[in-house]
Amino acid sequence: MNKYESAINYFKIKLDVAKLFEEDDKENAKMQMCFYKIAIEALDKQIPKKPFEPAFDVQVLNNNKRCPECGSYIIKAEQHCPCCGQALDWSEEE
Ligand SMILES: [Zn+2]
């Protein structure tokens, strides 16, 4: 487990705890849950994911692949998706 996965697990636990208090303390618990979800989403983008091969269509040029998160076309060697910021894993790509 890397540091991002550890932090995601921490925030998931905090999110579960906030859910327990959702009924008693609506405003504060809902705000906390919202921020924890944002934190989890942001941290998850730091974990490199493998781009995928696009289905054949007219937009496929120069072996471009697609972002696993948002599906945008990406150029090899980009470390992050220019559209959504997802970290990209190019290992085993030759
Ligand atoms: Zn993306």
Characterization of this structure:
The protein is mostly helical and 94 residues long. It folds into two domains: 3-44; 49-94, no CATH class. Helix content is 39%, strand content 4%. The chain is built from two helices and two strands. The protein has helices at 3-20, 26-44; strands at 65-66, 73-74. It has a two-stranded antiparallel sheet with strand order 1-2. The longest helix has 19 residues, at 26-44. The relative contact order is 0.14. The protein binds zinc ion. Zinc ion binds at residues 67, 69-70, 72, 81, 83-84, 86.
Keywords:
94 residues, mainly alpha, 4% strand, 2 domains, binds zinc ion, 2 strands
Task: Produce a short descriptive summary.
The chain is mostly helical. Helix content is 39%, strand content 4%. It has 2 helices and 2 strands.
Largest sheet: 2 strands, antiparallel
Q: What molecules are bound to this protein?
A: zinc ion
* Secondary structure tally: strands: 2
Content of β-strand:
under 5%
Overall structural class, as computed from helix and strand content, comes to mainly alpha
Overall helicity: 25-40%
Which blocks of ≥5 consecutive residues have pLDDT under 50? none
Q: Provide the number of structural domains.
A: 2
Helices and strands in order:
Blueprint: H1 3-20, H2 26-44, E1 65-66, E2 73-74
Antiparallel strand pairs: 1-2
Bound molecules: zinc ion.
Residues 67, 69-70, 72, 81, 83-84, 86 line the site of zinc ion.
